[in-house]
């Protein structure tokens, strides 16, 4: 009987050695912030009553569990083995050598004599070399990054007083929430901007965490003058392509539609509107000149008024003369001509004194009139001076 004791001890030792735990990490050289998938795999032949496993924290990495623990039976080496798996995502915080583990699985097992006893199974540590993040700023590394930009209205054609609501949703596959960048500032000197509180959410998935951040702004131009709200570039490391990429929040035009319509529609004013505008301008100029002239001495004031009347393009006596010529009433033409010439002499404008000679010859039959001179030509001669 004694000779069987060593055999039993060997069998028990073999059964104990069959319980194992290891850390499985793919062959890779991650960059700072990149997700490293880690699988804890235990293979047990003992009957397990209770178990507890805590993944160790470290100042060198962040980590999260991706899915619930899995227990299943597998055939290994011709015998049935109880397999335990836990999937972990590790995110290095700095460049250089990284050690993960050791990890201990604390078990309570049931022996053949029905007694329970504790059993600690430990996975030895694994080591990785972490590369620096290939850009400045937040080390954002992900399998994929998408930007969704929604606007409540056309930003370049807002109604007067309208506020634009802009919502940008950033979704990163394989990144933790705190590794996504902070909300960018949307400020311009001509813009009133209010930012709503941001929302960051994360959900685990078999391939890694999916993180979403939502930024919302309420934007309104101060004056309505058109402007451009500059775009924002978000650099990130594509862990599948192993290269840097850039996600863009696009630039958008901004302003009230009424400002644009007023600016482009200046040439489309109706005749009445244009006339009113010109009259208002002329009235303003005349009013200003009147203020200046009122402060002069009587003689200088008279000279100033004379010079002002000479500069004005509007001559009521000339218009009256042309109207009389069109009607063909020669006596009326003669009277209008006298008023026209009197005004020119009063203003010091050139007058030859022979403007009415042809007209007087036609009207009064004076001698010396040029032969063949009709009433139309005699009236036209009134506008020849000097």
TrEMBL record:
InterPro entries: BatD (IPR025738). PANTHER family: PROTEIN BATD, PROTEIN BATD-RELATED. The chain crosses the membrane at residues 274-296. This is Protein BatD. Keywords: Membrane, Transmembrane, Transmembrane helix. It comes from the Bacteria.
